[in-house]
Amino acid sequence: MEQEVDGILVAAHELKAPLAVLRQLAFALPEMDSSGEHTRSEMINVSERAIKQVNDLAKIRRLDDGLFEMEPVAVREVCDAVSHELRYLFDQHEKGLIIKYSNHAKLVTANRDLLYSVIYNFLVNAIHYSKAESQAELTVRDSAGQVKITIRDYGPSLPISIWRELKQGWIKQPTSIAMRPGSSGLGLFIASRFARYMNASVGAIRHRDGTSFYVNLPISKQASLFDYDIRS
Question: pTM above 0.85?
């Protein structure tokens, strides 16, 4: 299995250079009409998202090196940053995003960059597989002594096989998701690997009209001590 993952990482690395060239070529195109500018913008956005996934794949092999430090992370700030970055993509696909915060614990123990990628991949997944003119939902709440981030989409239901892998804690390798055409499961693969590194758990809830993906994060001890001081 690790050899297969290594093969994926090598292929991803080889793709990074042409993706970067494509992005630069799009920037270099002369001024066009509104239709042409829309195409240019789409080329840039697609290439940038692909480069981001390539970079995330490269991080997977570096996880064993312990380069990603765990620290107190403001979970709402990360969610706000990701949703702000992807707002244009929701608008472009004529879909909405509802954000609901009800968590009392504001800090979690995580690595900010890895957590950012987990939420990013879940939200991109929701954009691609929600029905036209639907709304995805991002919620953050306290759950059994942890903080739970959930992204709910309204697309095809997740296959049982992928759901079972997530239930076990992580996805072993990118897998084609039949009921979600065009998906390699790459974003879920990345999210599950990063969550595992952060001692967080990921999972999914299958609905008749979509899927909820979630990650449970340990509350920062710093946050717990802060809460104790306030109460005392």
Answer: no
